[in-house]
Amino acid sequence: MPQAVLTLFLLATVPGLPDAVYVRNSVTVLIDSVYTETTELVVVPLNGRGVARFTTLSVPFRTGWETVELLEARTGLWRSGRRGSDAVVTERPHHALAGQSRLESSMRELVLTMPGLETGDTVVVRTRRTIRNLPLADCYSYNYSPWCRDSVIAGEFTVIDMRGSGLYAEYSPEFGPPDTSGSTMRWRIGPLSPIDPHPLSFLDRPYAAVASHDARSVSRELHAELDIPYGTDSVMLSEMAAVIGPTPDEMRDWIARNVEYTGADLGDWPGFTPKPPLETLEERAGVCRDTAVLLVNLIRAAGGEAWLAMLDTTGGLPGLVGSRSFDHMVVAIPQGEGFRVLDPSARGVADGHSYGLRGTRFLPLTPWGSSLQTIPVEGWEDTLKLVFTGTLGDGSISGTLHATASGAPAELLFTIMERSHESYRNTLLSRFFGAESLSAVSGTGDTLAVTGEWSAPGGEGAILLPGLRDFCLPGTRAAHLLIPACPDGIELDAPAFESLVMVLARNGRELVPPLPVTAEGYSCSITLHGDTLFLRETARILPLRPEPERILPTLLIRSGSSARTVLTP
Amino acid sequence: MTAGIFLFVAATLSRTVFLDIGLFREQGLTRAVFTVTGLQGDDMRFSRVSQDYDPEYMSVSFLGASSAVPAWGVDTLTGSGGWPRTLMVAMPGIAPGTEVTWSFSAEEFGSNAGKGFWWNWRGTPGPDSVRVSVHASQEYLVHLRGFTETAPGVFVSNSEDIRAIWFGSPSNWRETGEMVMGEALAVLSPGASFPPDLTEAVIQAGAAGASAELFLGRARTLISDNFRVISPRGEAALRVRPLQSILDTRYATPLETALLFCAMARRAGHQARLAAARSDLPPFPYPIGWNRFLVRVDTPDGALWFEPSAPLSPAGYVESSDTLFVLVEGMDQILRIDPNRGTGNLCRENWTLNPEAGTFRLVLDCRGGFDRELRERLGGMPSQDAVLALSEWFRGSGIHLFPTSCATSDLFDLATPATLEVNGVFAVSPSPVYERVPELSWQSRGERVVEVNGSPVQGKDLLRIE
Fold first, then answer.
1. What ipTM, to 2 d.p.?
2. In chain A, what residues touch B395 (CB-CB under 8 Å)?
């Protein structure tokens, strides 16, 4: 993302008040025969939201190769006469597992509950994480970035390298170079003001990172561990590829449709080790790593080239990465000088992966070692074409809306059609298309047809016809969220080039159409031919993360009523 | 980049065909064995099944399935919705259209289970067919809706829209109240003393004024401001800690919150009683399913009801979209609170539209359920977030005006009615402007008045504003 765009985002967002102030936020990493990470947080919540955030804290960990010790967890009370300042600590399977259908209870968390926390109290938490072995490969990295939504008085990141094997270091200008003394590097930072958590805030977060390997080496090392040849399975894989292929996209679609997203702790590295591809096929179950390995092997069995790739769906990958830096595995297909990403664990996506991954950095795992890549933000075919044919009534129009979509809006519509219960589907579609009521829904090829009634309020010598602002929910939501305040999360529900053609029988009613309206990214015109009214409206609401200054005029005029008000003399 | 093409075909969803429940009542324990037969749909819902439970008084085990369960396919995870744990089972590879059967066993050994045989099941519409077989040596009551007894202890229901089955040991409402609120009533027993921190809270609330309503309104606000309400499920919801522990930890269950309010009211000399409430009346005295806890305060002007766990609700307002059935401590009968859709629920929207300037102003005045809804929508939000929430609300109401700023009364002061003023802009502002009549969508029902530029707009769809 060019720096100019980032600057626009920052100008468009108003820094919010912090929820808390970090009196101290320090991490000490000791690299010796084991890796030891000691974290110390001293935080004072400043408002109710801060109290809610810091009343319950989670310290996640994996059993098997790392342990977490709680050195201290307590609340310092500012008001006298209160009791019970030690945290209540429970250990349990990580709370996110059940929601994701991941049977991986080796992924656990310590839950620290601070009793009776109030605004102005001090939360003190010190933990020590001891990593006996890093998962998959001995590629260590740590990205220290003080939480930027709150104020930070003092941050400190200390790295002690007792092995003396050398470390890569990278840091943002706020940190500057470390103080180095013998085997110790130390960064100090603060005070820091809060920065609103907009989608690109990770680019602006001050950070200091260390790693034992550069990204290319990590690519090579992880490739060696994860991209295992399954020679004896090749015949079966070739036959399977011939049935479900031949293209990588067809194979991806088949896996996404037929392999259930359900995982388990397996192998030497629970949570990291994938299943052999035939096992995934046989069980028809797997999480991202299992389906990615299956897809790579199917593509290769069909004679193609494909590589596993790792990414971090939170988008915050620094330039230095290690074995623990990633939370998702996909497939990278060579394309031109780069790679195209296929995500076999995502159903109902138009471009090989969900549009939510646009802008994310990924690391292809190749034997020669690849550098970090980025999924493009722009250049996707996001369109929503609507054709309505019907009749103008009193206070409403009724008829059938044909919707043809590609890209992001298609992904949304597909999700509604496939994953919602029948009894909710019409309700969801009527909300998406802004209908007062829907009487029928059907799908033919790539077009969705919905029949129903839409509001067309009349009175005082005029009728206001519905338009894109009524027929298309994502663009309308964007208008309502961007026009008044331009929020922190400038990411559209579904970017699209929207077009609407409406053909209405006016049943002999005398109508006077308004003048056409044309502006950047928008046009609307109404014409009369015989007893038929034609309305044509288009709006460009692109891309996923738009520049607010460019899109706001389009959204504003799309929301107006003048271009769609016909007079009734 | 090329876009994929979708085939928009509506999916067939998974369906439960048959639910067979075996109930075993033996030695103070109730064990239920659920055997489910389902038809896999395109949503692949039966590829994963789960059973939530509380290990403190329940044990759950997976008994088997007709489909292969991989070696890794059974795991205990953290539950959701207030349940501490969930037993999750993966049965992957079941193709759409395939029939699959699986069984769970759930045993309850909590205090209620020890006191009697209490069990019920409801499905609306639920599985195509349900069979419940009871194996109990002791006497029990049964109530059937949509079920028939086909043999002694065997109850069957086929394709009924609404159906329910209840089993219970003979009891009365007073005993039921003691089973539900027993731990809380022990804390309030005449010999029990109140901790000093409670007295301090009573003094704080007393600063609001001498009348019962002022004191109780302030007490509601104090509890709402300072306590996080947690909602454990099952018997855990009926457990009560000592008052001092509740005050120290600053979190409480709905029952503990009601207990605290009741103790404060009593300490201040008011006639306050605990009550449990629910929106469906069991067919006979039944201790499970009482999920709301109220306090009734008798004053010379009549009874006042409070729900101290309702976080952003006006002080003396108890939400009841349907009739609420209430079990008051010490009473051997059920009381009813009628749905509050009447005149106590009032909303006045006063819109001032100025198309010349391209601006508008909305002033809202709310009571009852509207007041609660407004607090829930905007309570605790920074002003920028509140503007966005209002903008979403406007969109959902079909209003194409855009808020730019807003101001509210103190939404956390539950004793004072909530008010809101919104200022904002039109999308475009040529004059005259035709716009849909602005009218907010509310979930609450009651009396509504909408005025635009000083005139009521009931019955109008389109406005010409000059």
1. 0.81
2. 476-477, 479-480
